[in-house]
Amino acid sequence: MTIKERITTKLNGALAPATLEVIDESHQHAGHMLHPGGVEPRGETHFRIKIVAAAFAGKSRLERHRLINALAAEEIKAGVHALAIEAKAPGET
């Protein structure tokens, strides 16, 4: 299973979103520095997540991001370098 598929599965399972897009943008970041002294390997490292879920109702932007980061913690620890997150509750624009 790819990292994109794992993130998608976790978000679907935990948040039951009305809509979800997990977009792999890694190709746009090839060669960026991952950590001091290391060059980022090619692969699944950068993602954009667009999600609408009732679970976000009443939560701040920071709380929404923390929730998604916690769900993707294993993938982040394994080498996902960046998540661009657009998290909304139903009815938000």
Structural account:
The protein is built from 3 helices and 5 strands; from the N terminus they run αββββααβ. The relative contact order is 0.24. A hairpin with a 2-residue loop joins strand 2 (33-35) and strand 3 (38-39). The chain has helices spanning 3-15, 61-71, 73-77; strands at residues 19-24, 33-35, 38-39, 46-52, 82-88. The strands form 2 sheets. The chain has a 3-stranded mixed beta sheet with strand order 1-4-5. The chain has a two-stranded antiparallel sheet with strand order 2-3. The longest helix is centred in the first third of the chain and has 13 residues, at 3-15. By secondary structure, it is an alpha+beta fold. It is globular, with a radius of gyration of 14 Å. The N and C termini lie far apart (32 Å).
Order of strands across the widest beta sheet?
Answer: 1-4-5
Structural class: alpha+beta
Order of helices and strands: HEEEEHHE
| Uncertain ranges | 35-40
**Beta-strand content:** 25-35%
Largest sheet: 3 strands, mixed
Task: Let me know the average pLDDT.
Answer: 88
Helical residues, percent: 25-40%
Q: DSSP helix count?
A: 3
- Measure the end-to-end span: 32 Å
Work out the number of β strands: 5
State Rg.
14 Å
The shape, in one word, is: globular
